[in-house]
Structure formats: structure tokens, C-alpha cells
Amino acid sequence: MIRSIQFGLAFMSLATVVGPAFGAKAAAAYEVGDSVVVIKKAELQVPGKTVASVDRGDLLQVENVNGKWLWVRRDGPPGWLDSRHVLSLDDGLKQFSDAIQKNPKEPNSFPSLLVSCLCVQ
After folding, report:
1. What is the pLDDT of residues 92-121, one digit of tens each?
2. Distance in angstroms (rounded) separating the CA atoms of residues 20 and 71
3. How far, in Å, are 3, 11, 12, 87, 116 from residue 39 at the CA level?
4. Mean pLDDT, rounded, of the chain
5. Could you tell me if 71 and 65 are in contact, meaning their C-beta atoms sit under 8 angstroms apart?
């Protein structure tokens, strides 16, 4: 039992130190008003049902934060999204830019985020 507790504490300490090194952003770090980019297709949820899906590269606005869950808005209906499916706008742009540089002929390297950014500028 004591060994299990010691392992758990050691793991939590390691996760605190290593997590940020891998570019992970804690859910609590997202704030109302942040723009986030979807990095993996996911579903927007409201209690009891899915209201929409979001695709890789979609740009969303955070309107509320509840633990790891983000209440996001886009052109369609809003809903709750697990924060593991998004990155901050800066990190998302970097990730997609890196993907394009590595493989410029791959169509999946050009998500809708790029179109969104071009339209905003």
C-alpha cells in the first residue's frame, strides 16, 4: 500500500515536470476568450447527446472551462469538447506549419485552419 502511494506521488511529480516539456497544455490553462485549434476530429457534446462534430484544423472560441472540458463556439452549434482534442492557436499553427514543411504535397497537411487564417488576415 505504501509503495503504491509512493509510486503515485512519484508519477504525479514526473507528470508535472515532463508534461510541459512535451508541449501539453493543462486544461486549466485554457481561458474564456482563447482561440483553439482542433488537432483530432471530435464531437461537441451537451448533456445526453452529440450536437456536432469538429474536424482537424477547425478554429474554435472558448466560452467556458470546466476542468478538462471546454465550451466552444464555432459557426455551428456550441458544445463541450475534451481539451485533449485541441491546441492553442499558436501551438496549432506551429504544428500544422511543421507538417506542411515536412510533407508539402500531403493534402491532410492543409487543414481548414489555414483557410481560416488566410481569411482573417
Report:
1. 888 877 877 887 776 655 555 554 454 444
2. 23
3. 37, 26, 26, 7, 15
4. 73
5. yes
Residue type, 14: L
CA dist., res. 49 & res. 66, Å (int): 18
Locate 10 and state its grid cell: 512519484
Strands (E), 22-77: 35-38, 42-46, 49-54, 59-66, 69-73
Write the CA distances from 48 to 44, 71, 75, 81, 116, integer angstroms: 11, 15, 22, 14, 31
By the 8 A CB rule, do 58 and 43 touch?
Answer: no
Q: Which three cell numbers stand for residue 8?
A: 503515485
- β-pairing verdict for 35-38 and 59-66: antiparallel
Sheet of strand 49-54: strand arrangement:
49-54, 42-46, 79-82, 69-73, 59-66, 35-38, 86-88
Predicted model pTM = 0.64
Cβ–Cβ under 8 Å, residues 79 and 52:
yes
